[in-house]
UniProtKB/TrEMBL annotation:
KW Ribosomal protein (keyword) present: no
EC number: 3.2.1.8
UniProt-recorded name of the protein: Beta-xylanase
Organism per entry: Paraglaciecola mesophila
UniProt cross-references to InterPro entries, sorted A to Z: GH, GH10, GH10_dom
Keywords assigned: Carbohydrate metabolism, Glycosidase, Hydrolase, Polysaccharide degradation, Signal
Superkingdom as given in the UniProt entry: Bacteria
Amino acid sequence: KSLKAYFSTQFLVGSAINAQQAKRTEQDTDALIIAQFNTITPENELKWERIHPKPDTYDFSLSDEYVDYGLANNMFTVGHTLVWHSQTPEWVFEDAQGKPLTRAALLARMEEHIQTVVSRYKGKIKGWDVVNEALNEDGSLRDSKWRQIIGDDFIEKAFTYAHAADPDAELYYNDYNLYKPEKSAGAARLIKSLQNKGVPVHGVGLQGHYSLTHPALNELDDALTLFASLGIESMITELDISVLPFPSEAEQGADISQDLALQKALNPYPNGLPKAQQDALSARYKEVFSVFSKHHASISRVTFWGVNDANSWRNDWPMRGRTDYPLLFDRKNQPKPAYHTLMTTP
Ligand code: XIL
């Protein structure tokens, strides 16, 4: 039994993998990835800062290993991500003197990057997160450097350049909190405007950085209905379900090592997840997947953000140094109760 086999009539099931995993350094993790998943996403290895650290320097050593891994294992290999405000070096927006680029110069730089990267993996990377996280929570466009310098049309330009570089690749808009009504409405407006202009957009990626309480199932359901009505595919792209309390802004900045009470409140299970919370996680996975299954006709894949709890970014986000249990495999790569719960027919 495996995730990919269990859900094979509904959607692909995948994971983000990191550089170590693409290098196959840990045998049991490697075996687990191959047994369970039929699609992969690079956790960091294709981000601008990694592959294009300086104006005239590309470094494809890690991304090549990632793509080779996907090809060797016959997986639907995703590219993440071309245009984002984060993990993008500052020089991208500046000229050699450190002055802000003009619109024309930044567009030329964006086109050169997209053309170089997408054409390198033409026919190998099957789908691209072309633009990542361009929206505010209220559905308006985020005031990123991309938007400040180029204008709102930086998004359609990115999709157009990606399509020119590989006309067969699927092109996605990816963002978090797309279950929130205002934000999903903003994404729908954005996608419709691309469609109206004839710009190729094939899918929307809903990052799934969830918790035991968020999203509300009806909001998720509504968002998936909305995106299906646009005639595009939906993907759950970065699934992990934190079992920890979401800290306030002040708590995120606090030094919890100096405050035992806060430490206990914000990092309550440093030595393992108690049975009650393990059960809560199982029930939560079951219910969010029941919504995914309801929408399986429009969902092409569900991708976890990490293979096991040990390598999940949720141990460090939204605050550093906690012990979280957000995935289906534990720190020894063993399936957790949530894994078994998920694969029982209702
Ligand atoms: C995260 C990675 O998991 C971390 O290793 C890295 O330090 C920061 O980025 N949204 C995205 C992902 O689109 O690329 C982010 O990945 C998580 C949030």
